[in-house]
UniProtKB/TrEMBL annotation:
Keywords: Lipoprotein, Signal. Residues 70-149 form the Putative beta-lactamase-inhibitor-like PepSY-like domain. Residues 1-22 form the signal peptide. InterPro entries: PepSY-like. Gene3D superfamilies: 3.40.1420.30. This is Conserved hypothetical lipoprotein.
Amino acid sequence: MKNTVKLPVIAMASFLTLFSSCSDDDDSNSNDIYLSEDEIPEAIQSYITTHFGDNSIFQAEKETENDVVSYEVKLSDNTSLEFNSDMDIVDIDGTSKLPDSVLPEAIRDYTATHYPDNYITDWELELNHQQVELDNNVELEFEMNGDFIRIDND
């Protein structure tokens, strides 16, 4: 009898603790602004026109966190692009094959040789390396110059 009373009490306490620990991540150091197409920096618009000309911009956002500005743009084909404060591309997440023009030649050559039946859907510039994801969910890491490092199993 004691255990049947304790179990609901423990379950309720656990639920309340979990529920009260959730937050909406409303950080006073973060400021996100949705941009109209006219407000998107020219360098970003030019990048999109050059490499993703068949797509239109679905949504653009300027994000400021701890005084660091970045831009996130979602395209009509569900590709997401992230740019740093210098308007350099740092992350491309897609569901279809990325244009060859957005990928370093050494990375394109490596994947074509070692994964001829697959294509790159995501590319990310990390602090000291580049990472790509293939359509079979294999993630590959490369040095900044494009030399292969390893398969990322994380």
